[in-house]
Design brief:
By secondary structure, the protein is of the alpha+beta class. It is about 20% helix and about 35% strand. Strand 5 and strand 6 form a beta hairpin. The longest helix has 16 residues, at about 1-15.
Length: about 230
């Protein structure tokens, strides 16, 4: 049926634009790009966080640093005072909002004008006794939120950049706070990636993986416990 074909197309278009972080989605898909000149070893993996002037005294910054610290600990890093650190770790993060317009067909099955003829008002639907009529189109607008985090590691003494990774995902989830655990874990999975590495990381959705509004000094929220799957 023609109407079924249009319906399937509309569903596929919407599925591509719906949130990767929505409750009915089983995975969060994140794009990761890394640039690396890493030559450190486990014994030298001490670090402190670097903050821009804007990030000083920021509770949001402290909260995200806890997430990064947890993931760095799984990679053999140890957080120390700045004057004892071999590396400085800087964070950059943000959200961009876009609007996507999708044209969707609406079928009418009556030759007489009137609003919303067709199912469920017309028992014949788009294929009534007078045959199928060309569809009308309605434009629907959907917000799309792109969340990103960048993690930059430099040598404290020389300032040389040794690792720079960016993680980004998109969907209808407006909250960067809810997206951040997935972004951080994806960014630091399999550290260190090779220079110029680009890959897709899929993490299972965990309803408890978001960040609470408790004090930033509390333990950071746990990311999903199952291993991430990466598509190179």
């Amino acid at each position: 049926m023609k109407s079924d074909r249009w319906t399937r197309r509309a569903i596929l278009m919407l599925a591509a634009l719906t949130a990767l972080l929505s409750g009915c989605t089983s995975y969060v898909t994140t794009q990761v790009t890394a640039f690396s000149d890493w030559s450190g070893n486990d014994a030298s993996r001490t670090y402190a966080f670097a903050r821009s002037a804007r990030q000083q005294n920021s509770i949001e910054q402290s909260t995200y640093e806890l997430l990064v610290a947890n993931e760095l600990a799984t990679q053999g890093f140890r957080q120390v005072d700045e004057d004892q650190a071999r590396y400085m770790v800087g964070l950059a993060y943000g959200t961009r909002t876009d609007t996507v317009n999708v044209s969707q067909p609406v079928f009418y099955s009556s030759p007489w004008p009137g609003p919303y003829w067709g199912r469920p008002f017309d028992p014949w639907g788009a294929w009534g006794p007078w045959g199928a009529f060309p569809p009308a189109y309605v434009n629907q607008s959907y917000p799309v939120f792109t969340h990103s985090v960048g993690i930059r590691i430099t040598q404290r003494v020389t300032g040389k950049e040794v690792y720079n990774v960016m993680a980004r995902n998109s969907g209808d989830e407006p909250s960067l706070v809810r997206a951040m655990p997935y972004l951080v874990r994806s960014a630091l999975a399999d550290f260190p990636l090779g220079n110029g590495a680009v890959r897709t990381v899929k993490l299972p959705v965990d309803k408890n993986a978001g960040i609470s509004n408790e004090a930033a000094g509390s333990p950071a929220p746990a990311a999903p416990t199952s291993a991430p799957s990466a598509v190179q």
